Amino acid sequence: MQHIVLAIVLLFVTLLAVVSVIRQLKYKNLFALAFSAITALAFGFFSIATILSEIGIIN
C-alpha cells in the first residue's frame, strides 16, 4: 500500500513539473526549463517504475 501512495505522489510531482515545462517554454526561461525537464523525466521514470513494480511487471 505504501508503494502505491509513493507512486501517486511521484506522479503528482511529475505533472507539476510538466506544467512548469510548459510555462517556462512560454516565458523562454531556459535555465528553469532545463531543471523542470530534468525533474519531469526523473520523477516520471520513478513513478512509472514504481507502478510497474507494484503490478508485477518488474521484479
UniProtKB/TrEMBL annotation:
This is DUF2759 family protein. The keyword Membrane applies. The chain crosses the membrane at residues 30-52. Keywords: Membrane, Transmembrane, Transmembrane helix. It comes from Oceanobacillus longus. The keyword Transmembrane helix applies. It holds the Pfam family DUF2759. InterPro entries: DUF2759.
